[in-house]
Amino acid sequence: MMNYDVIIVGSGLAGTMTALELDKSLNILLITKKSLEDCNSYLAQGGICVLKNNEDRESFIEDTLRAGHYKNKKSSVEILVDESISGIDRLIYYGVNFSKTNNIYDYTKEGGHSTNRILHCNDETGKYIMLSLFEELKKRKNIKILEDTEVIDLIKKENRCFGVITKDNKYFASNTILATGGLGGIFKHTTNFSHIKGDGIAMAIRNNVKVKDISYIQIHPTTLYENSNNRRFLISESVRGEGAIILNHKNKRFTNELMPRDIVSRAIYDEMRKENVEYEYLSMREVGVEKIESRFPMIYENLINKGIDPKTENLKIVPSEHYTMGGIEVDEYSKTSLEGLFAVGEVSNTGVHGKNRLASNSLLESVVYGRKLANYINKNFERFNVDIDLKERFINLEKNTELIKEIIKEDERVKEYIN
């Protein structure tokens, strides 16, 4: 029997930040379905929001609430904003180098924001954040990393969680944290890794853990259209923040590119129906031909490798599933309705995002709430002697996907995108 103080399922920013902020005296197991890098946080391009100054506070809160159609939990939004600076400072402490111009942070802007308040690492923010954190993670002698391991269920006795079951083993813990990400893998058009398909949410539902607003799915307006079933290559919203425009097949603009994502996505989808086409266009030339390669080096290189030159031609784009706002219902410390079980990051529902996430708030939520969760456990940790006689039960993993699909199909906005 393998016992740990804390088990974390998921290697994205939420899970990794939580692991690093937990007390070094705790014995921690971090389990991930694939390799450490195979998380959606690693794919994040645009950036991470931060409160620029005290004068920006009310505007930042209002932008987040407005993007979320005021379905947000305001107290959660206030925590996100008020603790953003300390969260960014912590990332810098772990070695993250955000882009600067003339030694001053280069704040960018995305849809729904009333000002430039987004820090970035060129156009691969998630990659550079995660590489810095993974380097630190591997130094920690109290953290064991288990890759290529699929968790299939929780270990539950009465109303308490005592760990997880994988395909091959059982791992017991005093505290269990789900940081399994969203459910993009069940969609035909998605920016997510295909293996991230709502496992954490399905485990919660199966064990009667409260979930909330699962059908709140965000569709990203601008992903590269290709005639394949592969993960869609995302064209960062910061491209539009820097001036790129959306065009139809008549080369005409038909929407305000800097409205919140759900509005722009719907405008594109409606235009596709109107024109009876499978994609519309994005022109990056308005960013400035000389600036495209220097500001968006990763996007530029990927497009060139696909035979597309954004300096001279329009990009074919299609809206794709991008983010899950709903999830396992938690309080401000990421506690779920099941004692001993926590959820953090995209798998959770803190109430921050409401019905639609404001651009670049996802990485920030993972940092802020991951730190709050770790601090809560550090202050309240209690070790349990686990002695549970588990009855073997067959878990059909395909049922997880079907369970999630049935729930989100209730939302007419998203069901047309599902496989």
UniProtKB/TrEMBL annotation:
Mind telling me which Gene3D superfamilies this protein's record contains?
FAD/NAD(P)-binding domain, Succinate dehydrogenase/fumarate reductase flavoprotein, catalytic domain
Keyword Glycosyltransferase in annotation: no
Show the GO MF annotations: L-aspartate oxidase activity
Name this polypeptide is given: L-aspartate oxidase
Pathway, per Swiss-Prot/TrEMBL? Answer: Cofactor biosynthesis; NAD(+) biosynthesis; iminoaspartate from L-aspartate (oxidase route): step 1/1
Write down the species.
Peptoniphilus stercorisuis
Record domain FAD-dependent oxidoreductase 2 FAD-binding: where:
5-363
Q: Which NCBIfam families match?
A: PRK06175.1
Reactions that this protein is recorded to catalyse: L-aspartate + O2 = iminosuccinate + H2O2
Q: So which domain of life are we looking at?
A: Bacteria
Q: What is its EC number?
A: 1.4.3.16
Q: Which InterPro entries match?
A: FAD-dep_OxRdtase_2_FAD-bd (IPR003953), FAD/NAD-bd_sf (IPR036188), NadB (IPR005288), Succ_DH/fumarate_Rdtase_cat_sf (IPR027477)
Enzyme type, top EC level: oxidoreductase
Required co-factor?
FAD
PANTHER family referenced in this protein's UniProt entry, alphabetically: L-ASPARTATE OXIDASE (PTHR42716), L-ASPARTATE OXIDASE, CHLOROPLASTIC (PTHR42716:SF2)
Give the family, as the similarity comment puts it.
Answer: Belongs to the FAD-dependent oxidoreductase 2 family. NadB subfamily.
Q: Which UniProt keywords are listed?
A: FAD, Flavoprotein, Oxidoreductase, Pyridine nucleotide biosynthesis
